[in-house]
Amino acid sequence: MEFFVAQIITGLANASSLFLVACGLSLIFGVTRIVNFAHGSLYMLGAYIGYTFMQVLPGGLGFWSSILLAGLSVGVIGVLVEMLVLRPVYKAPELFQLVATFGVILVIQDIALIVFGPEDLLGPRAPGLRGVIRVMGEPIPKYDITLLVITPIVALTLWYLITQTRVGVLVRAATQDREMVSALGVNQAWLFTGVFGLGSALAGLGGALQLPKGGADLLMDFHILAPVFVVVVIGGMGSLPGAYLAAVIISVLNVFAVTYLPQSTLVLMFIVMIVVLTIRPYGLFGREEVAGEHGQVGEPERPIKPASARMQLLASGLILLLAMMPFYTASFSLVFTTDVLIFCLFAASLHFLLGLGGLVSFGHAAYYGGGAYVAALLVTHVNTPMELAFLLAPLGAGIAALAIGWVCLRLTGVYFAMLTLAFAQLLWSLVFQWGEVTGGDDGLVNIWPSEWLKPTIIYYYLTLLFCVGGILLLRHIAHSPFGYALRAARDSQRQAESTGIDTRKIQLLAFGFAGFMGGLAGALFVFSKGSVFPNELEIARSFDALIVVFLGGVKTLAGGVAGGVFFKGIEDILIKFEYWRLVMGLLIIFVVILAPEGIVGSLRKGAERLNLIKSRHM
Amino acid sequence: MLKVNAINSFYGKAHVLRNLSFNVPKGHVVALLGRNGAGKSTTMKSIMQLVRPSSGEITFKDEDIVRLPSHQIARLGLGYVPEDRRIFTDLTVIENLLVGWQSPREGAVTWTQEMLFDLFPNLAERRNNRGKALSGGEQQMLTIARTLMGNPSFVLLDEPSEGVAPVIIEQMIKVIGQLKSEGLTVLLSEQNLHFAQAVADSTVIIESGVKMFDGTLETLNSKPEIRDAYLAA
After folding, report:
1. CB-side exposure of A516: number of CA atoms within 13 Å?
2. Residue B42 Cα, gap to closest chain A Cα (Å)
3. Which of A171, A184, A285, A287 is the mutation pick for testing B, counting most B CBs within 10 A?
4. Phi and psi dihedrals of A90, rounded to 5?
5. pLDDT (tens digit, 9 = 90+) per residue, A33-62?
6. Closest Cα of chain A to B101: distance in Å?
């Protein structure tokens, strides 16, 4: 019993930072509808800045002012990010802003590296709170008790701000209909900036508050991201009490898991999330998202047409050029081109889901990495011949996608996206923590192709065949009746239903098919590298694909492929430099601001303006 | 007070307003009449810049308001009451009013919550209810009251009689009369000719975004062919 109570107290204390970061994210999403992926980065900055202040300011007063200063500084950084990066892109198509926040992640990562150095920093103890107190005989760190008091105070202050002040009323009104708020004379630009600043400050505060329990390191940004999203989604997007309750549930469960079932810690929160969303699709305190209620119904989609004769000729020429490559380049270029081709297939498979289906998956790496792992596991554990493993991998990924899609498609919009992310993280955690089977962090090695496929040139042709074939197949399906039905379901689910299309079935099949093609890319990948590690399943990998699809252009068929080539090409050049992330991040932000319709979309607009191609408008 | 000069507005590719021009003089109640889809709401939204006209001029108190952000237009004293009410359903009646609050304006009535509750007694009883708990008529009153909280000198009233009970329509007629007597200028869009006749000084009739008639009610009444051609019976 004593032990039990102690565990709960520890869990509640751990919930503190998680809650602060999560409610910041939730606030920002509620008002601006931006899924701020850079929120973890703001949390990381809070830890680093708090640490830096603590080195200068002495004593207990210094410690606590450092935490407040960290929160304030990160709030100011958030305001700058909102004004410089996000303001120019509020009018861009929905979700495009999140690409800009990816850019911010990369920029902050390198800035943190430059300013604070690569070493992990151990957080200082809180002065005067070093020891433990006994609660029912069990030792509880004094700092944990302090956190237990602080969090409800912050939560109550926020609650007061949101429910009892005019600013809070405006925030809640804007969460529902920001255009109307503006028509009533409220400057929403400043409301957005204010909320973004407040949300960021909360993240910074969370980062600084956890210092004595942890520290500061450069991986914090991604590590907090998954739990924070889980908390926000379980609690219900935009709900403060929900975020608090969810943070407590996750943290307390985690403490017990560490004690009783240590290998389940990562998986557990995703299971909780899946269970909650299955029972309450919009989280514990969330409310249903109604499309268009925020006064931002997107522009109507423009129809896509089969490639013109000129484009077909161009594509054929390009394929011919690729096919001739072994005759005029060195083998390392072949290896690089193999990578690019695989990545393009991966991106194209996500584009199929996102562009044609309107289904934003945040966790597409699950099928890419999943395919790679299916092949690798078959080879490692049952000595499956490579050819068979290669064919079974996309099948496995496709089946996984069907199962996951079946659960996720009960939801729409951001909840759908979050749930796909949760499943991807679930797979990642399984692979990461189930070391006996998957090799855990060490990955699976010695996964080579059969002898006859081993030479670089042969494998290059195999990749070329499957990637080009796969991409053409995806394009072909876009113009098939199935593709029409899929686009109909995207544009108006209700109307599609009433014309006799089973939209859910169509979307599920599309999800499965996109997973299948992602798995194919994964299988090509694993045999080209000879090994696979859990990072092929990571959030970062899913983000890569998302960035590429958005930057290439969601609304253009060639978007995925064009973005893939552009992204991989640039990455190959930049990665040679020490601070390539900074450059890459800035580049992404610039593309987002300058070309809000993606590379292909903006090129086409430019060409239309110059009358190079016939406008499709009139 | 409000001058609309040759504006053209589009929804995507659809050309909704074509070279539309009209004036609303200070202190007048002008009814913008036309059938469903004639472009009445788009006219209102174009004035508020919620839909950006592709060409033409709009001036309010001799100030050019085209391309101004909506909130600045509202702060000039132009109040907008949307057709679909758009009240904040998760907020209470009082909180809805709070969102519409602006500081007092010279030359316009300064409304307080109590004055508005006098104007709309039904709302007073429901002041702590959430927007979603209100009936259609109460929501219509709330959306007007919310806009009045901004102390406008000019009100754009988009189809106030749509979908509400006859008894509420009677009340709306009274309210508009009261607003006029307080010196407010009103541009009202309507399909209901009887409603317009009860409150308006003059009318503008549009059909497919083109102006078909501009004049007093007497003139309109003397030309039944116009009335029958462009207005639903």
Report:
1. 17
2. 14
3. A184
4. -65, -30
5. 788 889 999 999 999 999 999 999 988 899
6. 8
The pLDDT tens digits for A247-258 are 999 999 988 888
- CB atoms under 10 Å from CB of A514, counted, come to 28
The secondary structure element, H or E, covering residue A314 is helix A309-328
How close, in Å, is residue A115 to chain B by CA atoms? 40
**Average pLDDT of span A536-560:** 84
β-partners of residue B8 are: B55
**Does B95 contact A172 at a Cβ distance shorter than 8 Å?**
yes
Q: Does residue A360 contact residue A550 with C-beta atoms inside 8 Å?
A: no
What secondary structure does DSSP assign to A104-141, as a single string? HHHHHHHHHHHHH-SSPEEPPPPTT--SEEEETTEEEE
| Separation of alpha carbons A53 and B212, rounded Å | 71
A166 interfacial to chain B (CB closer than 8 Å): yes
Are A522 and A369 in contact by the 8 Å Cβ rule? The answer is yes
* A591 pLDDT above the threshold of 60: yes
Q: Are the C-beta atoms of residues B189 and B44 closer than 8 Å to each other?
A: yes
Task: Work out whether the CA dihedral A604, A610, A614, A618 comes out positive or negative.
Answer: positive
Using the Cβ of A453 and the Cβ atoms of chain B, whether some distance falls under 8 Å is answered with no
Record: contact A184-B100, CB cut-off 8 A: yes
Say what the alpha-carbon torsion angle B30, B33, B39, B41 is, to the nearest 10 degrees. Answer: 60
Q: Are B81 and B157 in contact (CB under 8 A)?
A: yes
- CB distance B95–A169 less than 8 Å? yes
Of A421-425, B88-92, B160-164, which has the strongest mean pLDDT? B88-92
Given CB atoms, is A618 within the 8 Å cutoff of chain B?
A: yes
Q: Across the interface, do A299 and B89 touch by the CB < 8 Å criterion?
A: no
A355, A502 contact by CB (below 8 A) = no
In this prediction the ipTM stands at 0.92
Contact residues, chain A, for B90 at CB < 8 Å: 172, 175-176, 287
Do the Cβ atoms of B202 and B27 come closer than 8 Å? no
B210: confidence class by pLDDT, cuts 50, 70, 90: very high
Query: A216: part of which helix (H) or strand (E)?
Result: strand A215-216
A444-445 vs A531-532, strand pairing mode: antiparallel
Q: Helices A309-328 and A456-478 meet at what angle, rounded to 10? A: 170
Q: How far apart are CA A22 and CA A203, in angstroms?
A: 8
E strand or H helix at A468, and its extent?
helix A456-478
Enter the pTM of the model: 0.85
CA A508 to chain centre: 21
Nearest CA to A413 out of A362, A463, A369 is that of A362
Between CA A175 and CA B88 the distance in angstroms is 9
**Interface mutation target, options A165, A178, A180, A618, chain B, most CBs of B under 10 Å:** A180
Note whether B13 contacts A: Cβ–Cβ < 8 A: yes
- Give residue-wise pLDDT tens across range A152-211: 899 899 989 988 999 999 988 988 888 899 999 999 889 999 999 999 999 999 999 999
Q: Does B8 touch chain A (CB under 8 A)?
A: no
Question: What span, in angstroms and rounded, lies between the C-alpha atoms of B200 and B24?
Answer: 11
Interface of B with A in 35-64 (CB under 8 A): 48, 50
- Cα distance between residue A481 and residue A243, in whole Å: 43
